[in-house]
Amino acid sequence: MRKALVVLVAAGLLLLPGCWSRRELTEVSFAGVIGFDWVDDQYLVTIAIHSPGQTPGEKGQPTNRAVWTISEPAPSPDVAFAQIDEILPRSLTLSHVRSVIFGEEMARRGIGPVMDVLLRSVEIRPTAWVGVTNGRASELLAAQPRQGVMTEGPLGYHDAAHNRSSISPARRLTEVAKIMQEEGIDLTLPLFRRANKEAPNPERAHEEGALRPKPEDAFEIVYGGAGVFRGDKLVAWLTPREARGHMWGINRVRHGIVSVGCPKPKKNQRIVFRLRGSSGRATLGTANGQLQGVINVKVVADVNEITCREPVVSPEDTNLLSELLARRVQEYVLASVDIGKREGSDMFGFGQSLFRRAPAAFRSRQAKWDKVLAEMPVTVQVDAQVVRLGQIRRRFRWQEAH
Amino acid sequence: MKRWEISAFQAGWLTAGAVVLTGHALAVTHFMQAGGRDAWISGLINMPLLFLAAWSLYRLRLIFPRDTIVQYLPKVLGVVGYPVAAIYVTFLFGAVLFTLRMTTDWMVDSILPETPALVISGLYMAAVVYAALSGLDVLARINQFTLPLLALLGMTVSVSTMQAKDYRLLFPLLEKGPWPLLSASVLALGFFGETSIMGMYDAYVLPEDRKKLFRAYIFPLLFIVTTFTGPLAGSIATLGHRVAADMPYPTFQHWLMVSYARFFERTDLLAVHQWLAGAYVRSGIFLLMAVHGLYQLFSRTTLQKRLPAKWLIPGAAAALVALSEKAIPSQPVFDTFVLSIYLPTTACLGILLPPLLLAIAWIRGLTRTKRGAQTHGA
Amino acid sequence: MARELAFQTTLEANEAQFKRLVGGQRGAIFRRVPVPDPPGAEILLVFFEIEMDQARLELVVIRPIIEGEIRPDDLPERLPSSTVKMKSVEHALENMFRGKVLLFREGTADVYSIEIAKPPARSITAPETEAGVSGPRESFTEIHVVNLAMLRRRYPGPALRAEEVWIGKEARLEVGIIYLDGYPTDRVLNEVRKRVTQIREDGVQDVTELTEALADRRVSIFPTVFVTERPDTVAHFIKAGRVAVMLDNSPRALIVPALFTDFFTSADDFYEWRPFVVFLRLLRFVAFNIAVPLPALYVAVTTYHLQALPTQLTLSLLAQREGAPLPPPIEAITMTIIFEILREAGVRLPRAIGSTVSIVGGLVIGDAAIRSGLTSPAMVLVVSATAVATFSLPSTTLANAATYYRFFVLALTSMFGFFGLLLGYLVALANLSGMTSLGVPYMTPFFPYRSRHLAAALGTKARPPKHLGATPQPELIRGADDFQERS
Predict the structure, then answer these.
(1) Same domain, A217 and A312
(2) Residue A359 and residue B239: Cβ atoms within 8 Å?
(3) C485 pLDDT exceeds 50?
């Protein structure tokens, strides 16, 4: 009986036309980054596609662009994908999309509808990074990276940058979805900016056939800062420093550099700390019947540079460095808190903290939460600890010899 | 069919392997939608009832050491037992249908979008029929291989998505009162009730000492509750309850999210393995027991002679494939089938029926267990 | 030959009868040896000269008879100790064909056969297919008694039993069933005896032809009988409770029951450093799991599941596949078939040039295929890795089974992607789980799980040396077999 079954199945397999879901590698265009813009009252979807034939190591210097972009306007993102698929000689696949970028207009209009498309798609992996740019995403995707393997495309190397950045809260698609659907917390997305590129390498300008940058190559991408959302709409920007302040509050800072002025402030004299670790927590409590927000930050740092004239490290003054650091951290965090309060965006999750402890208390205030936030006092307490001073302890006192 | 023999250990594992997929992959979205943020507690709340059902099955087995549940239903309930047994056999077929349909849907949705569903179901059931024809002991052995692997891979996924999880999202508990949790729990009973399939093959367990036998009933329970609660809580912690509730395949999404040390990524093909391996044993055992039960239901007729298993099993499988395609034309219809027919029936048959049977048997004085006379022969 | 044949009492009659039966055959000698006393009496010797050790015959039998040292009435006591009285004419014929000398006396129907054979045979050489680095370097020869002698030397204990069974109808051959007394279960032993005695085929050339009779299922992809040409391997297996079957004229032994894990052992495993053996066995298992699905996996990730590989690798594969004329499934099947042909060709060539030709052929063909654009480097790499993995398997029957499954899985994957691959694997698992070798489940010790056997299969537990009279070690096969009595 089993033999008959096997024969039957085998015959069936042979007779079937077979292979419906087949897509060969050479029939497919791989999308690396997707950009969403809102232009002329409709969506403009830009896709950065990996160019075939640009493997590293095959050619000494890749001369062509490894990634090229294509933009299509459409009434909805999915329609745009379909249109692009039609235009491209090879059918489009989104299964290798690494990044999704929202343009400023798009973000201000609201990213909710696009998130629906992204989450529903089985091809787009939920581990894709999400970011926002000031300006148009289509222009951002067309820019060239300063460094990095060409095949990665302009934004590919941000995969690594995302993870280790301390001036931009790196977000994956799942995290964005999670934050947006939770009560009492608002979204912040990392910011990609276009910045002017430097002139090409002067030493190589004499080489035969040296490339001159074309106009569209004149921009490069800088990663840093954040976009603040309220609900699904962008409402404000954070500078890199403010973004780091925010990240301290949501416990996302791992490392980075903090630069502090000397006790007697002078130009070009700084103390620079390198963070070794930090943690932060934002909670909402009540004090005297009033809601009170508290952000506790703990920072551990080493000293990288002391260019102050006056001594800042001495047996009597061990806490000076820590104090300086703590003050600066507090400054950053408060800056971001102010922006949140001003825009009504609960980016620290105070509401969430209340909701988890006392859901009814939150629900009763939920409709007017932005007002509650604006009026709520928020204190920032920083515990900074300076641990190591490096190979020289106090400072390089060369001036004393001259 | 010759007399099968499996050990208590194998029987326990088999039950665990047969039922785990439902709570893990097949019906998760229903529990999530009913229970919201609190859905994950539903497994824990049901534990007392589950223990009661498992213990009842165990006692019933001691009373009827060589009868399957289909055989002893009439003995306990009298004439009423026959229609109940018929419903039970139908449930067994229904479980195969449920698994088949859900697996096919998932394959088409997530993995092979262009392939016709009929081809997927047909191929899958052909493989299942091969296993079912091999017999209970072979299925038990296959399960002994696949289940540890499934558990291991499941733990891998859970560990490697740890950084994306925020368990504070599980709070506040019971924000909307007890009703979401209770409705999810009632549905979950349906899923847990599938463990009653053990009543179909515990008659073939070799005589064991009582402790081992009892453990064989309790182990699947614990295993299933753990594998149910864990992924559910994990999904809520990773995605938030609103997103997780809307996903038909949250455990698959988990696999898509695995990104560990930057090289252990893109492991979603392992998700296919998880699902298929779990579904394979499940479908095999349910199909085999369904046909077996059918034979026992009609034991006084010549059904088994006229239509031996090697024809009936493939035939039933083919009928189920056709049914899955034609009778359930769309996903909403399927959801209705699961929510209003399948889960309630399974809950009654699996959770309410065993204690009820035990009680009636006790009342009727059938509970004199044959201590020490645990013989079995060919 | 249904005629009733019987020995006659006169030399004339016997000679005439035997001349009728075998006289026309080349090499059949009818020699009358004169007996000095009483004068004129003779003894008739009938034999095949090709199989005779003539010198010894002269020395041991003919000369003493001629010179009167052995008188007819003293026969058979004065003859070499291997003399046997013949039970029937068929028996006598069989003995004659096997190289023994038939001795007839006048006036009696008693006929004896004397063992003075020197059949043409090889000397004991090193094993060819199971050559190892460490351990003994003997392999079996075609002579049954020599093989038995080798075994007895390796296990000089009373427990070693060699039962003699005859198979065939007209041209019967001797089969030896060898085991250690008390080690295999009675059920297994009786089953082996039953299956062997039921063999009716005449002229079985090699013991491997008996595999079908011994296996539980006649057609099965995976081997259920282990074949070895080394006596030390046989000794190891019978110490583990298995039964060895050997056939006269065959330089190999069959071991039953043979389980899945047995085919991952090589002869050297018993003599190497134990932790390394564990690693090696796991490595072989990994190799098996590479050899079967690798081409299918390649097809799956390049054709169906483009999202499965990291982006860089996908792009690199894409670059390689630009301009490739064949779709991956066809390419995979073609390349696999070509490699199988190369492998088969390598077997046929004489040893001196065989390996060179294989390597050169592989390199040249592979390189040319890539350059001409017929295939991509990745595909050649995949197929080569598969081939190497297959070669690393110690058992050729297992390697052949792997090849079969490879094609099966490749076909399924070509049509249904990873779904097909998994179904193929699940069906293979179901197949393996249901297989038995002499009634013992094939996948013991994995499932049913037997921990001590598993330890032995992995090589972690030393097979304890058995002393004379020590109690047998029951867990290895007995455990799997006594399923009914334990849980």
Answers:
(1) no
(2) no
(3) no
Tell me the pLDDT tens digit for each residue of A296-345: 999 999 888 888 877 766 655 668 888 889 999 999 999 999 999 999 99
Percent of the residues in chain B that have a pLDDT greater than 70, as a whole number: 95
C97 near B CB under 8 A: no
A182, B169: Cβ pair inside 8 Å?
Answer: yes
User: Is A177's Cβ below 8 Å from some Cβ in B?
Assistant: yes
Is A402 part of any domain?
A: no
Inter-chain contact A25–C306, Cβ cutoff 8 Å?
yes
Q: Which range is least confidently modeled, A377-391, B298-312, C440-454?
A: C440-454
Considering the domain architecture, whether residues A225 and A108 belong to the same structural domain is answered as: yes
Per-block average pLDDT, block size 10, for chain A (402 residues)? 63 57 82 92 91 49 62 93 92 89 93 93 88 88 57 53 76 91 90 66 48 53 86 92 91 86 80 89 83 91 84 68 90 93 91 88 89 91 88 78 82
Q: Which of C300, C310, C448 sits opposite B141 (nearest CB)?
A: C448
User: Which residue is closest to C299 within chain A, CA to CA?
Assistant: A24
Residues A361 and A251 occupy one common structural domain = yes
Query: For chain B, what is the radius of gyration of the CA atoms?
Result: 20
pLDDT over 70 at C373, yes or no: yes
Residues 6+ away with beta carbon under 8 Å from B64: B71, B72, B75, B203
C-proximal residues of A, 91-120, CB under 8 Å = 93, 95-96, 98
pLDDT at residue number C326: 82
User: What confidence tens digit (pLDDT) does each residue in C406-438 have?
Assistant: 999 998 898 888 999 999 999 999 988 888 888
Residue A186 sits in the same domain as residue A313: no
- Domain annotation covers residue A134: yes
Signed CA dihedral, B2, B8, B10, B12: sign only = positive
Which H, E and C letters describe chain B, residue by residue? CCCCCECHHHHHHHHHHHHHHHHHHHCHHHHHHHHHHHCCHHHHHCHHHHHHHHHHHHHHHHHCCCCCHHHHHHHHHHHHHHHHHHHHHHHHHHHHHHHHHHHHHHHHHHHCCCCCHHHHHHHHHHHHHHHHHHCHHHHHHHHHHHHHHHHHHHHHHHHHCHHHCCHHHHCCCCCCCCHHHHHHHHHHHHHHHHHHHHHHHHHHECCCCHHHHHHHHHHHHHHHHHHHHHHHHHHHHHHCHHHHHHCCCHHHHHHHCCEECCCEECCHHHHHHHHHHHHHHHHHHHHHHHHHHHHHHCCCCCHHHHCCHHHHHHHHHHHHHHHHHHCCCCHHHHHHHHHHHHHHHHHHHHHHHHHHHHHHHHHCCCCCCCCCCCCCCC
Domain that holds residue A291: 241-392
Quick one: A225 and A285 in the same domain? no
Q: How far apart are CA A97 and CA B174, in angstroms?
A: 38
Please report whether residue A260 resides in a domain. Answer: yes
Nearest chain A alpha carbon to C431: A2
pLDDT of residue C3: 57
Q: Identify the structural domains of chain B with CATH numbers, from first to last.
A: 8-363 (1.20.1740.10)
Residues A216 and A95 in one domain: yes
The number of domains in chain A is: 2
One domain, residues A334 and A191: no
Q: Which residues of A touch C312 (CB under 8 A)?
A: 151
Residue A11 counted as domain residue: no
**Residue-level pLDDT at A144:** 61
Instruction: Give the CATH number of the domain where residue A293 resides.
Output: 3.30.300.210
CB contact under 8 A, B257 and A20: no
ipTM passes above 0.85: yes
Q: The whole model's pTM is what?
A: 0.83
Q: pLDDT tens digits for A259-284?
A: 888 887 777 788 888 998 889 899 88
